[in-house]
């Protein structure tokens, strides 16, 4: 069993005391301990601000892009090695582990290429300058420059690699140093990634720090130039937003939280049609990939009432083929939940949803796990519920079960009815719509847009041509309104904006052109 250490002020620091124990969630065998007691968080933040920040800001976007690209090259070379801790500590199947790791490296590669296109610039200029008066000399415009603080990244347990990469790529390219704090329970993969980064000596001193364990008084020491980016539960997000330092210093905060995402089958999608089959494939994948522990997973499945029985039957048939067990075994297609607490929460969540639904597959999730002694591991099987009156099933629109659980919601097949039902959740990261009637797809997309960060339109033309709706792409924004956190990450250059200060400039045009690099 190893001890995870923090990396701050340019050195590894081992915490004092016993710390938390990281387990293999399939076997419950201890793998490591993590403890940040004794870490000087004030010194860590100061080192990042005064050493890492200036070093990054001295570089152009193109030079920072080279750093991000070098990280991609180095970490990608260790891809196969990194799959092992993802399986052992994350409960991932090999396929799930590759989904996380390859998504991470793909994001780094994308931002490295994007940064190269910005060349020698050290700040971003928005659009052309505007004439502000009758005088042709008086112009104004906006410029975005790196904030002179530190970006604190608190990442979720389900994507230790991808969560790290999607935040780090944007912050480093924008010119801000990072303090990353992965979820302790599944930190083994993130820790190995950090070891590889430190060994590579690619980044300037102070550009990247790592916290193994709890945050201690870290967040209370944030200042006005700092950024706090969090992925996790809405309750924790609300707690972080209410922190004294955040309120008093107006620390910039980005939250990506719970999301009752949905899949909508349109009335024109006949059973067996390409769009119908794509819908089934995506629902089952999102229910079972990473044991349903994805912020983008489908939780609500809207189907026209006339197709409800067919969909229920077809989903149950596909879910019955899922093999749950030790993810280290080749025949297993779904591993355990990440922690004992997750297991308890999922079981309680299923019981809660049952007040408004009935189980049509999987009952309460009881399962005999393949390759695991009875009673060991944090396993739950896929569960499909059905609400016969979706309009009154309040728990389905208010409570997310973060596991392999989804609820069928029959509706009358009209876009208006679907939008009214899905809007009740208060905001989603992503919704997917399946059918071939373009007018229906357009009406649904426009109706759902205010409630979604992203919408996937799955027609027969996209079969075999598109990434699944649960895949986060660096070219497009990741985030959503309302209960989804109200935040926004990625989205190409927009992903850098969290770490840049937008400033309005007013001057005579030649001076403004010089300030913005256009002189």
Please give a structural write-up.
The protein is α/β, with parallel strands linked by helices and 519 residues long. The protein folds into two domains: 41-257 and 487-515, Aldehyde Dehydrogenase, Chain A, domain 1, CATH 3.40.605; 261-473, Aldehyde Dehydrogenase, Chain A, domain 2 (3-Layer(aba) Sandwich), CATH 3.40.309. Helix content is 34%, strand content 21%. The protein has a seven-stranded mixed β-sheet with strand order 15-16-17-14-13-18-19, sandwiched between helices. A hairpin with a 6-residue loop joins strand 6 (124-131) and strand 7 (138-146). Helix 2 (61-76) runs antiparallel to helix 5. The radius of gyration is 24 Å and the shape is globular. The N and C termini lie far apart (60 Å). 52% of the residues are buried. The mean pLDDT is 94.
Question: What are the key terms here?
Answer:
five-stranded parallel beta sheet, seven-stranded mixed beta sheet, 21% strand, 22 strands, single chain, 519 residues, 2 domains, alpha/beta, 34% helix, Aldehyde Dehydrogenase, Chain A, domain 2, Aldehyde Dehydrogenase, Chain A, domain 1
Look at the structure and give the mean pLDDT. 94
Shape: globular
What is the CATH topology of the largest domain? Aldehyde Dehydrogenase, Chain A, domain 1
Helix segment count?
14
């Amino acid at each position: 069993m190893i001890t995870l250490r923090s990396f701050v002020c340019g050195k590894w620091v081992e915490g004092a005391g016993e710390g938390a124990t990281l387990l293999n969630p399939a076997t419950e065998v201890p793998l490591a301990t993590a403890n940040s007691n004794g870490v000087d968080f004030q010194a860590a933040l100061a080192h990042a601000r005064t050493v890492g920040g200036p070093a990054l800001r001295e570089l152009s976007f193109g030079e920072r892009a080279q750093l991000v690209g070098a990280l991609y090259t180095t970490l990608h070379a260790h891809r196969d090695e990194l799959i092992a801790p993802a399986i052992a500590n994350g409960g991932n199947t090999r396929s799930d582990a590759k989904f996380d790791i390859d998504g991470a490296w793909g994001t780094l590669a994308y931002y490295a290429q994007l940064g190269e296109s910005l060349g020698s610039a050290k700040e971003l200029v928005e659009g052309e300058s505007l004439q502000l008066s009758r005088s042709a000399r008086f112009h104004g415009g906006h410029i975005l420059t790196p904030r002179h603080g530190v970006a604190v990244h608190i990442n979720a347990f389900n994507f230790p690699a991808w969560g790290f990469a999607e935040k780090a790529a944007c912050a480093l390219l924008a010119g801000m140093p990072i303090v990353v704090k992965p979820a302790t329970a599944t930190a083994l993969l993130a820790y190995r990634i950090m070891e590889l980064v430190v060994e590579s000596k690619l980044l300037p001193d102070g550009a990247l720090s790592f916290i193994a364990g709890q945050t201690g008084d870290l967040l209370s020491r944030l200042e006005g130039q700092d950024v706090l980016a969090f992925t996790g539960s809405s309750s924790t997000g609300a707690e972080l937003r209410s922190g004294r330092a955040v309120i008093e210093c107006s620390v910039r905060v980005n939250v990506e939280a719970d999301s009752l995402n949905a899949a909508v089958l349109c009335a024109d999608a006949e059973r067996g049609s390409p769009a119908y089959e794509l819908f089934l494939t995506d629902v089952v994948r999102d229910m079972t990939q990473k044991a349903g522990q994805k912020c983008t997973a489908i939780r609500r499945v809207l189907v026209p009432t006339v197709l409800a029985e067919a969909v229920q039957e077809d989903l149950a048939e596909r879910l019955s083929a899922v093999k749950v067990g030790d993810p280290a075994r080749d025949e297993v297609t779904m591993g355990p939940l990440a922690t004992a607490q997750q297991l308890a929460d999922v079981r309680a969540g299923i019981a809660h949803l049952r007040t408004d639904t009935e189980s049509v597959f999987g009952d309460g999730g009881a399962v005999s796990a393949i390759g695991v002694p009875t009673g060991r591991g944090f396993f739950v099987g896929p569960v499909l519920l059905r609400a016969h009156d979706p309009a009154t099933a309040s728990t389905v629109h208010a409570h997310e079960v973060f596991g392999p659980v989804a609820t069928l919601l029959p509706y009358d097949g009209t876009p208006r009815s679907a939008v009214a039902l899905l809007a009740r959740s208060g905001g989603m990261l992503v919704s997917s719509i399946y059918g071939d009637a373009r007018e229906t797809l357009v009406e649904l997309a426009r109706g759902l847009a205010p409630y979604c960060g992203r919408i996937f339109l799955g027609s027969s033309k996209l079969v075999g041509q598109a990434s699944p709706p649960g895949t986060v792409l660096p070219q497009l924004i990741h985030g959503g309104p309302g209960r989804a956190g109200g935040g926004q990450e990625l989205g190409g250059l927009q992903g850098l904006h969290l770490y840049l200060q937008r400033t309005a400039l007013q001057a005579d045009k030649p001076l403004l052109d010089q300030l913005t690099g256009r002189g």
